[in-house]
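Project outcomes to date are best conveyed with an example. Our students and postdoctoral researchers have been running inverse folding experiments weekly, and each run begins with a structure described purely in C-alpha cells. The record below, which covers 102 residues, was selected by the lab manager from last quarter's runs and is presented without edits.
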C-alpha cells in the first residue's frame, strides 16, 4: 500500500509516495509521484476521500478542486465561496464535502 506525503507550493501541490525502507537503504525513500497544477493562488488544505480515489484541494483563489488519484487530472472545480477557502473534509461515507472560508 502506498502512503502519500503532500507538500504545498504556492499554487500547486505535489504528491510524493512514501516507499518503505529496505535493508539496503534503511532510510525511507521519497519519490515524486505527481505535481498537480490548477489553482491560481495558494493551496490552503487538501483532503483524501474515504476510499482514497479522490483528493480535494482548496485555495485562496476561492475554489475547491477534485483530483483523480489514479492519473492526477482535475475532475471538477467547485466555485461559490466569496473569500479564501481554508479547509475541506469529506463525510465518513464520502457522500458529502464540507468546506470553510473566511
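After processing, the design step wrote out the following sequence:
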Amino acid at each position: 500500500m502506498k502512503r502519500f506525503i503532500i507538500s504545498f507550493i504556492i499554487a500547486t501541490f505535489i504528491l510524493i509516495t512514501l516507499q518503505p525502507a529496505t535493508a539496503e537503504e534503511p532510510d525511507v525513500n521519497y519519490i515524486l509521484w505527481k505535481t498537480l497544477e490548477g489553482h491560481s493562488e495558494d493551496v490552503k488544505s487538501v483532503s483524501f476521500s474515504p476510499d482514497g480515489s479522490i483528493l480535494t484541494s482548496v485555495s485562496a483563489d476561492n475554489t475547491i478542486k477534485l483530483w483523480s488519484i489514479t492519473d492526477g487530472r482535475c475532475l471538477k472545480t467547485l466555485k461559490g465561496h466569496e473569500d479564501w477557502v481554508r479547509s475541506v473534509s469529506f463525510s465518513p461515507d464520502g457522500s458529502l464535502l464540507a468546506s470553510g472560508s473566511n
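Residues 1-11 have pLDDT under 50 and may be disordered. The chain has no helices and nine strands. The training component of this project remains on track.
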